[in-house]
Amino acid sequence: MIWLRVFLVLVMFATSARAGVVRLKDLVEFDGVRGNDLVGYGLVVGLNGTGDGLRNAPFTEEIMTSILERLGVNVTGEQFRPKNVAAVIVTATLPPFARVGSQIDVTVSAIGDSGSLLGGTLIMTPLNAADGQIYAVAQGAILAGGAAAEGDAATVVQGVPTSGMIPSGARVEREIEFDLGSLDTIRLALREPDFTTAGRIERVINQEFRRSVAIMRDSGTVEFDVSSSRSPSTAHAIGRIENLLVEPQRKARVVVDQRSGTIVMGDDVRLSRVAVSQGNLTLRIEEAPLVVQPNPFTDGQAVVVPRTGAAIEEDPGISLAEVPEGTTLSEVVAGLNALGVSPRDLIDILKSLKAAGALHADFVVR
């Protein structure tokens, strides 16, 4: 069953690799069209006894005192130990061209010893960017995806109840100053740099405008001349090219997840001529000590006599098999499947093939 799962993963990956062309906007990032990360520190209230223990999280008491004083409640010198509040870090991404008044999603994560944020409400929390300025304010009910239950002698937790999100939970209060229309040229940054793919992007764009408006600068950058495209605006020019279809050229890659035994190989993986053999060697040692009692009516003592059994067993394993030069992915899968190689053994074989220089692909182990 495990081998069948890996085999299906391999076939699915090979099929997707042959899917052909993809949209340009799925291959590149447009210069200046990017989001900005936001972060804030806030307080969640309304928890059902799963809040922070204030003795272990004094910062929770400090922010709670600060919020109450801003609301006109004087708590100086007061001792309170509520169990329904928790200090949290709030994160969000400000999308490109976000305008004042638009709403964005936020993620809320506990930083104290709160057991769960389920049912809590985030109090008004300012979100800052890297420049220290406030760009959004978050508030609302939290949707936590996990659950936790606790008894006197057992605790059960499903998912991560100490983290949740608030859909459209933040409102944009400041805009990022960026004038897209003032750009005469735009750089297209490839997510996976490749000279062949960059050249194809250049050719497709020039064919669309029937003139030379794009040029490949390196494996990761294609420069697009907006002024030469004769478009009404920069936005019109981007909208015209972002859905152009390009066939990307991908590197040959083998990805191995040692924890689950999953192996994924791309369609371009090739092997040089090599011979493969695999087997298992088992060393077994058994201790069976024997106790010898003294004869009756004597002053002797019992003696323990050691007895050890040692044996070496070698499984038949897999006979030596030859893999011809230029073997493709489907041939590798069919051959290893015929040899009865398990996923764990296949990982060892692939490592040895890479070490021997016979596997022509990037070997990534996770």
Explain this structure to me?
This protein has 366 residues and is an alpha+beta fold. It has 6 helices and 26 strands. Helix 1 (2-17) runs antiparallel to helix 5. The longest helix has 16 residues, at 2-17. The protein is flat, with a radius of gyration of 32 Å. The two termini are 22 Å apart. Mean pLDDT is 79; it is low at 1-19.
Question: Concise description?
Answer:
By secondary structure, the protein is α+β, with helices and mostly antiparallel strands.
Write the SSE topology:
Elements: H1 2-17, E1 22-23, E2 28-30, E3 36-45, H2 58-70, E4 86-94, E5 103-110, E6 121-128, E7 134-141, E8 143-144, E9 147-150, E10 155-158, E11 163-172, E12 185-190, H3 195-209, E13 214-218, E14 221-225, H4 234-241, E15 245-246, E16 253-257, E17 262-265, E18 270-271, E19 274-278, E20 281-287, E21 290-292, E22 303-305, E23 308-314, E24 318-323, H5 329-339, H6 343-355, E25 359-360, E26 362-365
Parallel strand pairs: 16-26
Antiparallel strand pairs: 1-15, 2-12, 3-4, 3-6, 4-5, 5-11, 6-7, 7-11, 8-11, 9-10, 12-14, 13-14, 16-17, 18-25, 19-24, 20-23, 21-22
Helix pairs in contact: 1-5
Keywords:
alpha+beta; six-stranded antiparallel beta barrel; 366 residues; 26 strands; four-stranded antiparallel beta sheet; flat; 6 helices; disordered N terminus
Q: How many individual helices?
A: 6
Structural class: alpha+beta
User: How is the biggest beta sheet arranged?
Assistant: 6 strands, antiparallel, barrel
Catalogue the unreliable spans. 1-19
| Shape summary | flat
Cα gyration radius (Å): 32 Å
Note the gap between the termini. 22 Å
- What is the count of structural domains? 3
Strand order of the largest sheet: 3-4-5-11-7-6
User: What integer is the average pLDDT?
Assistant: 79
Number of strands: 26
Question: Helical proportion?
Answer: 10-25%
Strand fraction equals 35-45%
Subunit structure: The basal body constitutes a major portion of the flagellar organelle and consists of four rings (L,P,S, and M) mounted on a central rod.
Keywords: Bacterial flagellum, Cell projection, Cilium, Flagellum, Periplasm, Signal
Organism: Arenibacterium halophilum
Subcellular location: Bacterial flagellum basal body
